[in-house]
Amino acid sequence: MKRDADFAGFLxxxxxxxxxxxxxxxxxxxxxxxxxxxxxLLFGIATSEYSISWGFKIDANVMEAGALAVLLVIVLxxxxxxxxxxxxxxxxxxxxxxxxxxxxxxxxxFSILYGLGLLFGFLLLVIPGLILLVRWIAATGYVVGxxxxxxxxxxKSWEATRGHGWPLFFAMIVLGIATAIAVAVLVxxxxxxxxxxxxxxxxxxxxxxxxxxxMFLAFGAAVFxxxxxxxxxxxxxxx
Length: 239
Hints:
Helices cover 77% and strands 3% of the residues. The protein is mostly helical. Strands 1-2 form a two-stranded antiparallel ribbon.
């Protein structure tokens, strides 16, 4: 039986999703930590100078490190997207949503549009960006877990989250704070002991970032699971 789609339900389902897929989550975090530490370990590039998540960000210092460093960051970006897709698809499969075919290209295109939309929203003002962040939170689930075309996924998420904006917003804040505290407890003592420029500190920082990212992927899967209305799909089966 599904939890209620409210503040407690969103958080409770998030932790349930993470618990049910714990081995996969641990593997996801470990693999991405290893991969995303490579630019810093091999070329001395600070993790703040590049990012691999909902897009690519490559600062001038990465360019100065040479073509090999730039190529590595780009390749890691593609591999990271693929791993994110596989992990998120597995989270949805744990909740009964698996369409049995690869939608990686749709996920990649969606991620680019999602990132551009949020960027535009935050450039206008912070509030439009926050609204899009909340109202599009279920869109990834429609792209990966159903046959919904990418453009329609944004609209479906907007409709599904109607009336749930504030519970979602506060659930995201609480999840972010709780995860940040847990990561700080894990990472800061290590950094304090070994120094913030050591290899161990770099890996610990990337580990914290990936734990944070994994929890919000679980949150996205949980929100989609609780808000998605299966009535239409069931009707099509019996028509």
